[in-house]
């Protein structure tokens, strides 16, 4: 653990954002855990003060006893609030890329290595989730952060807290991880036809009926050949479609930024993103070209992901 200077220890940002972001597991200790009275705790302290004042005015030993009993509960709950978080180990897991406008999910692993049950834990990124940890147990939780634009999206500060046992104090620990995920452009809403490719070739022997090649998808109608059904789309729950075949069509397409319609860069990238997804779902080999990058026609998830990553970082 790195040592903090006196100035760093008293920086106000430590109470809300935590220390510098790291990729290593974080163990919660006295340096990372902060405790303050809740609204209920402040009212409880006011009650104790009022009881002491009454006991002093009327010289009543029973009221003194009650005030001291409540005061002891007040101060002991500080220790229990601290122990609820102390020793927990937080680490981050894998996260997947998303499209702009979707919520990015960040996996956080929580390990309780001690013989203490952790009650009323709350962990927050943008929304709060509650959990309880048994002794010597581990759990994983997915925290969501909403995205608005393409590129790298950073998660921000993960805060774990608890008001156990009496709700008089809130113990919390803000932790920063180097959490980020890639955000692809938002696919265009309108499904435009694939661009015509002048330099595409016709693959010989693509089908036994002649030089008929794949030309698109249409909704399935009774009587359509079963072998033309697009089973991949059906398996994804997207409906039942039939593959169309026609002569003089290319078995591959080129998706080129320069020939993509759109009023600005984001609209073009959005349309390219839609074409990449549609081509992958229709099993069409496609080439991909944007300024500074050109990928030869290919198929498969790896090819699709590389193209989407290029669009995200363009």
Explain what this protein looks like in three dimensions.
- Strand 6 and strand 7 (128-133) form a beta hairpin.
- The protein has a five-stranded antiparallel β-sheet with strand order 2-11-10-6-7. Strands 1-3-5-8 form a four-stranded antiparallel β-sheet, with no helix packed on it. A three-stranded mixed β-sheet has the order 4-12-9.
- By secondary structure, it is an alpha+beta fold.
- Helix 3 runs antiparallel to helix 4 and helix 6 (265-281) packs antiparallel against helix 7.
- The chain has two domains: 10-184, no CATH class; 212-312, no CATH class.
- Helix content is 28%, strand content 31%.
- The protein has helices spanning 6-9, 13-16, 39-58, 61-85, 231-235, 265-281, 301-312; strands at 26-27, 34-37, 89-92, 98-99, 103-112, 118-124, 128-133, 137-146, 151-154, 157-162, 169-176, 180-184, 212-219, 241-247, 253-256, 286-290, 293-298.
